[in-house]
Structures are given as structure tokens and as C-alpha cells.
Specification:
The protein has about 150 residues and is mostly beta strands. It contains 1 helix and 8 strands.
Length: about 150
Amino acid sequence: VTIVNDDMTQGIVGLSQSTLSISEDQSGVTLTLERIDGSDGQITVQYSTLDGTAIAATHYTAAQGSITFEQGQTSATLTIDLLGNTSADGDHSFSLNLSGDHVGSNNSVSIKLLDNDSNTNTTPDTGSSSGGGGGSLGWLLLFGLGLFGTGRRA
């Protein structure tokens, strides 16, 4: 008589977060994959990145491959390299998706790259003071208009 233990299960894999925000000046973003509802045997899941407003080779390095969970292993990490820039171009986002026979419902994460570059104020100084006096340019204009108006009287 052979008894087969059918109570053991291989489990399912999902991402620990569905959204993540990180500054674009970081060298990479590390994601955690979790194996739940069992850890019997070896299972493999596939992953791939997908452009959103963040573009591969411009904002991050595209990634595609597989991760194998060994017998009893319940977590694994994956790092995606980020390619920071120095232009103030706003926040961007992309996603990482999991696929395979052992992937659960939490199979995608949206990664937001927060712009850490700011616009430099390039407005020229008009000489105005904080007291509301108009500065020297304002007085010059008033004086010039006064002379012009005086010169036109009959």
C-alpha cells in the first residue's frame, strides 16, 4: 500500500506591492516576489517590464526573464536598473508583470519614477522692490509718460 501525501501544494507567486514610487536618481528599484499557499517543490515564474510614460533605455533598463523558487523558498527579489536624468521632465511610470502557471492575482506592479530635477527660475530681474514701489523701471516709465504728456499740451 502506498500513501500519497496530497496535502502539499506548490503555492502561487505574487508581488508584494501593486504600486511603488521611487526617486529617479536611485540606481535601481528592488521588487519582492512572495510565494504563498504552499512551498512544495520547485516552481518558475516569468517577468517582463512594460513601458508607460517611462521609456526603456531612457528612464530604466528593460528586464525580461524568469525566477525559480526552490523547495521551501517563499520569497525572491528582482532589481530593475534605473537610468536617472538631469532634466526636469516630470514623473514617469512603467510596470513589471509576472506570468506563468503559478502566478496569483497580484501579478503586476506600477512603478512611478519621481522627478527629482527642478525648473530653474529664469525670469529676469526687473528691479522691482518688495515694497510695491515699482522699482527704477517703473519710475522711469512714469516720468517718461509725464514728459510726453506735458509736451503735447497746446
